[in-house]
Design a protein that fits this description.
The structure is a single chain. The protein has about 525 residues and is mostly beta strands. It has two domains: about 40-115, Immunoglobulins (Immunoglobulin-like, Sandwich); about 125-190 and about 240-250 and about 270-280 and about 290-530, Methylamine Dehydrogenase, Chain H (7 Propeller), CATH 2.130.10. It is built from one helix and 45 strands. A hairpin with a 5-residue loop joins strand 10 (about 140-145) and strand 11. The chain is globular.
Length: about 525
């Protein structure tokens, strides 16, 4: 009974306290926030659906009229002039130097993304190239042979879904229209990665990279030769047989007997000799005379990142070899990384990358030329060289110029902004001037047969103009009108191949690690562009 009284009394006191102490709330956290803007792009395509710089385009968009005095309109992040706004449309003018990209409206700090607007120009993805979804991993090399066959090499295991019916490992043949070619004799293909391919005088194809096996043969030392049908070129060679089994007296081996212990970056074939460059420290070949069926011996010869061989793989010890030492050995080479190289018609070799010395005796800031015997070429007039990494070098027989690109800002003591054009003697072309990159650097670049220059890389702007990852410039370094209409390239280009399509249009096929280009995904690391005259 007393307990009940206490409970009632406590309840009564609590109710009195509650009545006399009202709850107080803090300030509204959303007070003063911006009112939502009711702006919506319609599903109707822009009119026209593609346009040139300077053209008027009408976009379907609702809710803009009341914000007409405070909005900003952009095409591919370039502010565009607005000429008319209605309840359901916006009319704007495509800015000069504009390239393909998305449109957007900014109202009071709020962004509204719209459709992609293709910009009309002379550069475009070739619709006749039937690569489909392409390769499922990077393509590092593309080669057209003298028989007009096209091969691609890399570390992919599929091309446009054909792996469901055909073994594909690192190498494939495609038609001139990009379609997968069946019936090749690649067998199990490549164990490893192909980074370079060249055709030899006998029409064999020399492949190189990081390769330990081709088809079922495991005696590959990062390079070997295959026929035009894709079959490994092999022979039977006698070996030492310490058993009673006569089957172990011979071994099926690659005809090409030479290579390296570490990966090869690039391979050249000239005057029936093979020149390789890379990050290797030794040349090797298989010593079959004293080898057994289960134990293959190797001859190893020190070589500092450069080696020259005969067409069968035997070392050419007249090149890049120091004959003043006993025993003889190859030169030390550069004290860093070789990223790319060019072999001149006279046998001189230019190396670029990230290094500062050659043979530990000569200054060589990220670029150096070797004489035809492999010695340092002091006549190459690059002076102090590049003050940063050089990623790529290409040579044009048409212009007789070298195009050098990378992350450097100075070349031979003068501003270079990541790109320089060199004369054959190594001096800088005074008529060429890089106008500067933003948000990245140029990577792969090539001089085209029409004297234009294609440049790719990680950059977002060139000369403060939006050019995302790909651009076309002239021999003076200026953007070429009508050739810079394409949109963003996401990826890294490693090689290219010029040609013509079945319409007679000039083309260039790009391969590498390509995620997207010009608003298109699933390109499969290969894309062909047309360049209209």
């Amino acid at each position: 009974m007393n307990i009940t009284k206490y409970i009632l009394a406590g309840t009564f006191m609590l109710s009195l306290y509650s009545c006399s102490n009202k709850l107080e709330y803090g300030p509204d956290p959303y007070a003063g926030g911006k009112e939502p803007v009711d702006v919506v792009f319609g599903e109707v395509a822009p009119s026209p659906s593609q346009a040139k710089p300077g053209a008027e385009v009408v976009f379907s968009i609702r809710g803009l009229l009341k914000y007409k005095d405070q909005l900003k309109f952009y095409i591919n992040n370039m502010q565009a002039q607005v000429t008319n706004i209605s309840d359901s449309t916006l009319t704007g003018i495509v800015p000069e130097d504009c390239s393909t990209g998305g449109v957007k409206i900014v109202v009071d700090g709020q962004i509204f993304a719209g459709p992609m607007l293709p910009i009309v120009g002379k550069l475009s993805i070739d619709p006749t190239f039937q690569s489909g979804i392409g390769a499922n991993s990077p393509i590092y090399s593309i080669l057209r042979t003298s028989a007009n066959q096209v091969f691609i090499g890399g570390n992919f295991t599929d091309y446009n879904g054909n792996a469901a019916s055909t073994k594909i490992t690192g190498i494939a043949r495609i038609s001139n229209s990009g379609e997968f070619v069946r019936g090749m004799q690649f067998g199990q293909g490549v164990t490893g990665t192909i980074t370079s391919m060249v055709e030899m005088n006998n029409k064999d194809i020399l492949i190189s990279g990081n390769i330990t096996q081709y088809d079922t043969i495991k005696l590959v030392r990062n390079m070997t030769t295959i026929s035009s049908t894709g079959a490994l070129q092999v022979k039977s060679t006698p070996i030492l047989n310490l058993t009673s089994d006569p089957a172990k007296s011979n071994l099926i081996v690659p005809i090409f007997n030479g290579g390296t212990l570490s990966p090869i970056v690039k391979t050249f074939y000239q005057n029936n000799k093979v020149t390789v460059v890379g990050q290797f420290g030794q040349y090797v070949n298989n010593y079959y005379t004293r080898s057994t069926y289960d134990n293959i011996l190797m001859d190893i010869f020190p070589m500092g990142g450069v080696a020259r061989m005969q067409a069968d793989g035997a070392l050419d010890d007249s090149y890049f070899v120091n004959k003043t030492t006993l025993p003889n050995k190859g030169f030390e080479g550069v004290n860093g990384i070789i990223a790319d190289a060019v072999l001149q018609d006279d046998g001189k070799l230019i190396l670029v990358g990230a290094f500062t010395r050659f043979n530990n005796t000569q200054n060589a800031n990220n670029i150096v030329r070797l004489k035809s015997d492999g010695n340092f070429d002091a006549d190459f007039q690059v002076g102090s060289g590049a003050n940063g990494f050089v990623s790529n070098i290409s040579y044009s027989k048409l212009t007789k110029k070298y195009l050098v690109t990378g992350s450097f800002t100075m070349f031979n003591g003068k501003p270079a902004n990541g790109m320089v054009l060199l004369n054959e003697d190594g001096s800088s072309d005074a008529n060429f001037q890089s106008l500067g990159f933003a948000s990245g650097f140029p990577g792969y670049a090539v001089q085209l047969s029409n004297s234009l220059i294609l440049v790719t890389g990680s950059f977002g702007k060139y000369n403060n103009i939006i050019r995302e990852g790909l651009m076309i410039i002239d021999s003076k370094g200026n953007l070429v009108e009508d050739f810079n209409n394409t949109g963003r390239l996401v990826g890294t280009i490693h090689d290219s191949l010029e040609g013509t399509n079945n319409l007679g249009q000039k083309t260039i096929t790009l391969v590498g690690r390509i995620q997207s280009f010009n608003g298109k995904n699933n390109l499969g690391n290969i894309v062909r562009l047309t360049l209209l005259d």
